[in-house]
């Protein structure tokens, strides 16, 4: 039986792929800094390696995002609701500093809050992140406004660290394509939404997990994915595509190790709070179930257009059914595509399906998809089309809230906001369609066009297909993967045959 550990592929340490030689949009954009890289250039000879450049660019873009929040930081968070919307600089962080008891020294999950919320409605690791930020900001004594500002600033600093971890992990995941991480670093939606909430913690942990999987470290992948799931629920969805791909390649040991690692680290974080503060611990899960249709979802368009409220239980049921249908389609794609899809491709599709069918699509949820998009479809044109849709929605939701909260009704009316929702849903669907097209026609995939198989696939990279459905073909074999297994197909009568 072959070892589940990844064997280095022949292509893995090949030359770095410069995007300005492969992507016309990247080449055109490079004119701002002197044009595409020359034929005889040697990028590795400079101290500014691709990873360092990407990290510096990410820090610069994050700083620009902080500057964009300056009107709120100075006054708009504290002078009524509509001004923070008209300046498009809203953030949950300063408001929850007071609203979730951090200003009063309350401990998340253990201390009961005043009002209807009762307990903090975030997963345990995010709650710890929020509490650590509160401890770090406690030396900055002053009025409540100053304390809110310092709490946001400390959180912004911690989230900047998460951003650097994120882009470095993306740059290192595809070893020959580190410049694809510039898609993440330069993403306008990342700069605009990075400090709205605490999602970047889970996003960074997920990117680190995918880096570990690309190196064949299944246990480290599982441990990091479990931590990411303890910060936000969506990372656990990556186990679904991994199951399908490991099934097709018959890499059960690696998948089992990843699954056990995920469950183990999630339990280590959650069980102490679950046992000592059960009511506070379960608040996130009960809140997710009881939450009504909210901003950004197609469910909101339905309720606003029809004028009828859909029962929360019915929306939950319909959303689960739609998600299951989407997952079945993604699984079919993974098993029936002519060449085994790349891990990042199916990961993007399953997370996008979750967001699209969910009863809320908050503006910061785009952060979940940005690194997956850079790994799954590193084409600047398509990425920027999608980002344009997300930026339009970012502006649309704040203008709509300005319209509904201001007495003079200045902003975006309901019909305009519905168009903004439809636009950002369409942008996500567009990118999904491009990724599905790449999976069905592998010769279109820009990553594989450079001679790679699945650089984020770890043990899947260059592995031979074992289980396929229909006429799915074998992927090209690499010399490093010499272990063979019998190919299993499904016959017409539904029985497996070799």
Automatic annotation (TrEMBL):
It is a multi-pass membrane protein. It is found in: Cell membrane. InterPro entries: GT87, UCP010361. The keyword Iron does not apply. The chain crosses the membrane at residues 47-67, 150-171, 183-213, 219-247, 254-277, 318-336, 343-363, 383-404, 416-437. Pfam families: GT87 (PF09594). Keywords: Cell membrane, Membrane, Transferase, Transmembrane, Transmembrane helix. It comes from the Bacteria. Residues 475-498 are annotated as: Disordered. Residues 475-485 have a biased composition (Low complexity). Belongs to the glycosyltransferase 87 family. This is Glycosyltransferase 87 family protein. The lineage of its organism: Bacteria, Bacillati, Actinomycetota, Actinomycetes, Kitasatosporales.
């Amino acid at each position: 039986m072959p070892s589940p550990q990844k064997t280095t592929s022949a292509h893995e340490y090949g030359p770095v792929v410069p995007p300005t030689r492969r992507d016309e949009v990247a080449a055109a954009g490079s004119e701002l800094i002197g044009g595409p890289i020359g034929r005889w250039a040697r990028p590795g000879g400079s101290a500014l390696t691709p990873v360092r450049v990407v990290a510096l660019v990410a820090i610069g873009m994050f700083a620009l995002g902080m500057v964009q929040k300056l009107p709120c930081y100075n006054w708009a968070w504290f002078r009524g609701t509509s001004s923070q919307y008209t300046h498009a600089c809203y953030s949950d962080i300063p408001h929850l500093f007071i609203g979730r008891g951090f200003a009063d020294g309350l401990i998340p999950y253990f201390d009961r809050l005043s009002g209807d919320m009762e307990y903090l409605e975030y997963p345990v690791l995010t709650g710890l992140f929020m509490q650590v930020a509160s401890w770090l900001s406690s030396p900055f004594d002053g009025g409540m406004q100053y304390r809110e500002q310092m709490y946001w600033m400390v959180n912004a600093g911690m989230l900047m660290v998460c951003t650097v971890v994120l882009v470095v992990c993306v740059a290192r995941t595809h070893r020959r394509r580190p410049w694809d991480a510039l898609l993440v670093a330069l993403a306008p939606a990342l700069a605009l939404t990075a400090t709205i909430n605490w999602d970047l913690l889970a996003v960074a942990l997920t990117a680190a997990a995918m880096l570990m999987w690309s190196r064949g470290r299944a246990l480290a992948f599982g441990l990091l994915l479990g931590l990411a799931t303890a910060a936000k629920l969506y990372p656990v969805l990556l186990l679904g595509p991994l199951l399908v791909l490991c099934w097709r390649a018959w890499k059960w040991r690696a998948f089992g190790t990843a699954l056990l690692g995920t469950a183990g680290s999630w339990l280590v974080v959650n069980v102490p709070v679950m046992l000592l503060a059960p009511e506070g611990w379960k608040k996130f899960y009960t809140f997710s179930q009881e939450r009504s249709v909210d901003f950004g979802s197609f469910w909101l368009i339905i309720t606003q257009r029809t004028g009828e409220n859909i029962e929360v239980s019915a929306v939950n049921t319909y959303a689960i059914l739609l998600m299951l249908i989407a997952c079945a389609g993604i699984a079919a794609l993974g098993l029936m595509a002519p060449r085994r899809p790349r891990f990042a491709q199916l990961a993007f599709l399953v997370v996008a399906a979750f967001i699209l069918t969910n009863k809320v699509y908050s503006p910061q949820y785009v952060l979940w998809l940005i690194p997956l998009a850079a790994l799954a479809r590193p084409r600047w044109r398509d990425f920027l089309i999608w980002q344009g849709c997300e930026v339009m929605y970012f502006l649309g939701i704040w203008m709509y809230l300005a319209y509904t909260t201001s007495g003079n009704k200045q902003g975006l009316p309901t019909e305009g906001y519905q168009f903004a929702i439809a636009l950002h849903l369409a942008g996500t669907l567009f990118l999904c369609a491009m990724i599905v097209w790449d999976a069905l026609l592998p010769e279109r995939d820009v990553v594989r066009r450079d001679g790679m198989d699945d650089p984020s696939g770890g043990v899947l990279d260059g592995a031979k297909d074992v289980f396929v459905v229909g006429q799915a073909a074998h992927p090209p074999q690499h010399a490093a993967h010499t272990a063979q297994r019998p190919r299993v197909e499904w016959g017409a009568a539904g029985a497996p045959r070799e």
